[in-house]
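Note on ligand handling. Small-molecule inputs were canonicalized before submission; formal charges were left as drawn, and no protonation-state enumeration was performed. Where a ligand contained multiple stereocentres, the stereochemistry in the source SMILES was retained. For adenosine-5'-diphosphate, this procedure yielded the string shown in the input block below.
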Amino acid sequence: MNLLRLSLRTLRREWRLPELRTLAGSLVLAVAALGVVATLSTRVERGVLASAAELIGGDIGVSSPQRLPDDLATRATHDGLKVNRSASFPSVAFAHGRSQLLDVLATDTAYPLRGTLELRDAHGHTQTGHGPAAGNVYLDHRALVALQLQVGDMLQLGGRELHIAAELVRQPDGGQLIALAPRAVMSLTDAEQAGLLGIGSRARHRLLLAGAPAAVHDWRDWAQSTTLPQGAQLITPEQTRQRMRSAFDRASAFLRLTALLSALLAGVAIALAAQQYARRKTSEVALLRALGTPRRRVFGLLIGTLLALAVPALIVGVALALGLAQAAWLFASTLFAGVPTVLPWGPALAAAGIGLAVLAGFALPPLARLAEVSPVAVFRDSVTRRVRRFDGLYLVPVLVALALIWSQSGSARLAGILAISLSGVAVAAALLAWGLLWLARRVAPGAHPALRLGLAALARRRGLSVIQATALGMGLTALLVLAIIAPSMLDGWRSELPSNTPNWFVLNLQTNQRDDFSKALARLGADQLNMLPLAVGKLVAIDGHPIDGLHFNDPRAKDWSDRQLRLSWAGTLPPANRVIAGHWFTPHPAQAEVSVDTMWRDMFALKLGDTLSFDVGEGRLDARVTSFRQVDWSSFRVNFFLLLDPAHASALPHTWLASFHLPRGHATQVATLSRAYPNLSLVDVDDLLDRIHQIVDRVSGAVRWVLAFSLLAGALVLAAALSASAAERRHEAALLRTLGARRGQLRIAAACEFALLGLIAGLTATAGAAGAGWWLGRQVFHIEHYVPPLGSLALSALIAAVVVMLLGLAGTRKVTRTSPMRLLREG
Amino acid sequence: MSGTPRFLLDVRDVSKSVQGPEGRLDILDGVSLQVATGESFAIVGASGSGKTTLLGLLAGLDTPSAGSIRLDGHALENMDEEARADLRRQLVGFVFQSFHLLPALSAEENVMLPLELEGDRLARTRAREALASVGLEARRRHYPAQLSGGEQQRVAIARAFVHGPRVLFADEPTGNLDQRTGHHIIDLLFALNRDHHTTLVLVTHDAQLAERCVRRVELEEGRLRAHSGEADA
Ligand SMILES: Nc1ncnc2c1ncn2[C@@H]1O[C@H](COP(=O)(O)OP(=O)(O)O)[C@@H](O)[C@H]1O
Ligand SMILES: [Mg+2]
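Structure output:
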């Protein structure tokens, strides 16, 4: 307790020291930045999840080919969750002698629990609604056109006469991949009474739930621990759609990256400030030690003082984080209309914890060394500061940084990339700084006196300059990654959805229909037509061992081996595919060959040369694995896990899968086409694309918000780092003034010094950010052909030099005004 | 000003007062003195008597509240900071009680500083010569922390002399040193004073040391008490 009082007294005395203020400021800033980012991230994540929930129509659900047991719903009601039961199935509707296969959703009136069901009434007014009452049905535009019906008419479905109450404009679709046919929504009661859901029907039953996150979470845990009926699957927002999911993954990766780099920036500033503090305290500690204070007590006092400083700083940081997050949310919340807006406290408090860890990790080494100052230092000030080779304590910040990187990035690979690129930047910055300083020393003798003084000063302060350039380089790398790489990656990501992305899919096209169908499409103005053969089969054996007898560690393997697989073939490697092992098919292989996607390779633990046996129709095909492919599933192309070589596969019974692009507003013509080819399933992806665009917009908008905040934080931390080193220049300036240096000389010298420092940092950061960006774009975010914007990076290196120069000048303004009398007074 | 002024330093009725927390504080009151070129001049007095303040005024680091100070004929009280800085650079060298070497610079680099301010291209060579003249050529690459107090002060003296100043101000140059080392330092100062024909203004509270100067004044609570030595000279 005595120690605490002493610490508080020390702090009261030292509170005005610039480095302690810098330290407190960095901590406030670190916690605020981390907190804002984490709080916003959490909200954005919830927003993204809620968007997914809107697509599904609930927070979570189960779907099953059989009727779902009642306890699933009972449990949910008990947990306070809202419940929606539904089933979907294909069914043929009749009206005026016409018939059309419809994709029917039969639901209770609770539908939808999340998102909106948009309906258009007979007068063309659009409004939101719920599942239809018994006796009513909603049809989408394609269905109405195909059956030549209007809202208000009657139609026959499942043997019942139903009243078309509204046109279906948009609906949350329960996480179902693609609606194959025109859609209808009817009452679950009607469907049950009509016997559409009985045994032998093709209905897929669904239970959707919504409610408080905690209750959803509880139910989810419970559901995962119970055995669901055979073939039943959980529907979660995370796994809703490949595209959706990758959008979410990328968004959260960006957000984590942002938070992480802010924390590391703060760590750099804290390390600089602590170093400065330790340097200043050396003589005092030497005195204390000389007066007989035990080392442990000195250390305790230092830690106590630091904690006394840290606690209020942490509180201020958390308050600031929450305030800023709330303010930012008020602006950004328009992006997530309809998402619950509770301010989460957890992330800001966790940020305070991380802030404390950063403080401990980065401030500890200099302070621990400080406590070790020998009492002899009283007699020869600063003798112990220098001449120390390696200090194991400097591993502490490295370890803290690694732990942070690992905990924040969540993925070992991302952590590895970040750690390697950051330390690469550190080493590169140090080497480059060293080299440029050496160069400056050579250049100095011929330069203008003031310039030379600045260069010489910088060149001579080697150690410090190298450390500073390295720290600035790291900070700038972080800033560049955030400010330039991330947005440009977002653009790269968005541009992956070109406007002429195929927006229609056609299933079940027969070989003899291909030509006519192509011509019909061309008449409609469709382009980008692409046809792929499609055979359906089952994997029956691997290397001759029947699949049912094999055991796989990956639980998905069993699921896939039960399923009908989609097989295709191609003579050339399709776009968005990359062979990562083995070789692509040779024109006429002796034996059938198959190229396998990496997920499948991992699932079934396949090796090159393994033989896969498929049952296709009546026949059987044994194909040798000759290559593994990395497939970009987020590209909007039709992709296959398994591709066969055309020489052997083209004999298999198959249909064609076509995709094409057709400008919007052709629903009527497509309906006509659909009637002309009754066997075809025409799938409209426009709607899906619309929603994905919308989600991408939301996510990138929100990420930009987070970026703006950490950018600000990064800039402030950078300024703090500069000011931490400024204190020791004061003495130098006073001396130079005494020796007759003009103020202008000091300013130009400082300008040169900081500009060079900024340039060194800027150049290294440019290289580092470009490298990290290139790597991240390729390895983590899977953006094909991503090239970091080198022009903007180089420009920002120059801007960095100017900004660092201005910051340096601002930081040394007071210094150049130091009265030379100070020096006489100091001793 | 034409020709060489009779006195390198001509101080007339100088007062210095500062605004302290408890009102006005007179540190110096009506100080007048003259120092001839090439002379060695001691300012003695008890601690707190105003010696450092006076030295700061003489060297143009600060301006008097009243009175006039001419340094080599330039009226310091009429010059702004920058002009005084120019004057210091050309005319003045300093030796401080606590050396004030820059810890990040080697001995040689510390000595180079005044030359660099003038843009001297031969800074390194001349700094090396200056270090040699204080007997530290071998230590030129060493940093202040690696030097003893006496060695640090010798480096400081080399720095003070390296650009050939007309006057050298020393504020308690032996204050941080043991007696023997202090004597060496003083010997060195006087030797350089002689060889370079530099005027030496020495502040000390050590009467014995002051005795070695040609002239002495004693400060007592901001006033000159007695001139001594003038008669002896
Ligand atoms: N800027 C100042 N503000 C207040 N008091 C000062 C200031 N400068 C000097 N003094 C006071 O003036 C007196 C003389 O100081 P100084 O010239 O340092 O004396 P000496 O060098 O002889 O020990 C001291 O009492 C000192 O405290
Ligand atoms: Mg004094």
